[in-house]
Amino acid sequence: MLWLGGPADEVAPRLLGMVLTTRVDGLVTSVEITETEGYLPDDPASHTFRGPTPRNAPMFGAPGGVYVYRSYGIHWCVNVVTGPVGSGEAVLIRGGEPTEGRATMMRRRGRADHLTDGPGKLCQALGIDGSFDGTRLGELLEISGVPGTRTWVATPRVGISVAVEHPLRFVASQDAG
DNA sequence: TATAAGATCTCCT
DNA sequence: GGAGATCTTATAT
Question: Which nt sits closest to A51, CA to C1'?
Answer without folding.
Answer: C10
